[in-house]
Amino acid sequence: MTLKVHELLNNARLNKGTAFTLEEREELGLSGLLPPHVSTMKEQVERALSSIRRKESDIDRYIFLSALQKRNERLYYRLLIDHTKELMPLVYTPTVGQACLEFASIFRETSGFYLSYADKGLIQKRLANWPEQDVRLIVVTDGERILGLGDLGANGMGIPIGKLALYCACAGVKPEQCLPIMLDLGTNNESIRNDPLYLGVPEPRKRGSEYDDFLEEFVRAVEKQFPNALLQFEDFATGNAVSLLEKYRDQLLCFNDDIQGTASVVLAGLMATTRISKIPLQEQRFLFLGAGSAATGIGHLLTTALEREGITTDEARARLFFIDRKGLVTQCRDDLPGHVAPFAANMPPMDLKQAIDTIKPNALIGASGTAGVFTEEIIRTVASFHRNPTIFALSNPTSKAECTAEDAYKFSDGRAIFASGSPFDVVHINGEIKVPGQGNNAYIFPGLGLGAIHGKITRITDDQLITAAQELAGSVSDKQIQHGCLYPPLDEIRNVSVKIAAAVARDAERAGLTSKPVPENFEALLTAELYDPLY
């Protein structure tokens, strides 16, 4: 076999497998190296789906799909685009959580880019080794807070890989423009450090100035090496996530999906609930279980959205309440982080049940990472105050959800408006079909990234996130709302992403945050430019 043929069959971007035509096989020296039948893309998809469905576990299906991505990229994305609802839970949450836990043992081929503290002073030189230079999207993590699973170190690389797969499948971003990066600065998870198969640096995490200086060098290296890229921070611990976003959001095109993407998709869900409850958001009270970066990110964006409805900042914050490990976040506490302090209530200390009895929240929003904490008693109590209480169990993966969809509906006598972070099956109750909404960030970040890339956006703002939420909420049909579903079907996600991209680009242009004018026919141009994996 010549080197040329070998490279062709092992280049995932060029390889077509059995879809190479007879003419191509003859011209490229492939004749005899493949079975004689020339497959269509449809036949290859059916064969791959059959293989996936025969697997006994989701982690085996994940491994199969990962291998396919490394072998035949176009077939991989054709599968994801045409079967998004079935395959997204395998490529991303909840299965990606298990994949990260087992990353060291299931590792087959390298994907993405790794930087460790040993690369300090050489980061831009290292980034120059990446074979693609027209990088437009970078998803980076340091692996310290992977979903609700905690510090997984270098095993967290599964998250950037999965996120960028969704950028391509859900928003048509070209795979060659995507770069997943792991910043391996150690791990404080001793079980991982002691794993003989662990592929990362088996040392405690860098902290303080060592961490900050490394991130500063990394960000500046990205600016120089990939000046047209959107940098997305993913699954950093709360303190670092907040400080990195505050430091860099006004310096370069960057975005934190855990803070901003989650906030936007939850805000969209809350906007959609008003079509069921008939209660405007500015008249509701919101109780959050969890006060990390995701929960307070929702709180800050919700505050801005409520201000748009005509109430003051103080009036908006007075409708938001947070519970952390110590109970209700109140003004009598002097240990509150900066991102939490603005939401401290002028109330005495109390636990979750006491807070619900006192506040009588319209919406109970879980971002705690604590499974089952929304008990029967909690759900029944909230439901006793309101005809259609909102219950969002947002923690990922499914095993960390604050409650199941079935429990939310059952303990509210079918009246709850429910959404979750991971998917739940349809629930039949009281002769009705309830379709749980999945507040998946994939409804927001792909469209936002698409708009940033093609709209030449220079900064991501809260106004853009609210615009994205409004566009997403408006895409839910009346029929879907009637079944309690707050988000559109996943098979519509590409169209939704295009609409979000166009809307945020227009918003950015009005704010003077685009480097070029946005064309009048921008949405049509986007649709024509979407990556479409065909042979």
UniProtKB/TrEMBL annotation:
Subunit structure: Homodimer.
The keyword Lyase belongs to this UniProt entry's keyword annotation: yes
Organism this protein belongs to: Saccharophagus degradans
GO biological process, alphabetically ordered: malate metabolic process; malolactic fermentation
MF term (GO), any: malolactic enzyme activity
Domain Malic enzyme N-terminal: 69-249
Similarity annotation: Belongs to the malic enzymes family.
Keywords: Lyase, Manganese, Metal-binding, NAD, Oxidoreductase
Enzyme Commission number(s) of this protein: 4.1.1.101
Enzyme class: lyase
PANTHER family from the UniProt entry: MALIC ENZYME-RELATED
Cofactors named for this entry: Mn(2+)
Protein name: Malolactic enzyme
Malic enzyme NAD-binding domain sequence ranges: 259-509
Known catalytic reactions: (S)-malate + H(+) = (S)-lactate + CO2
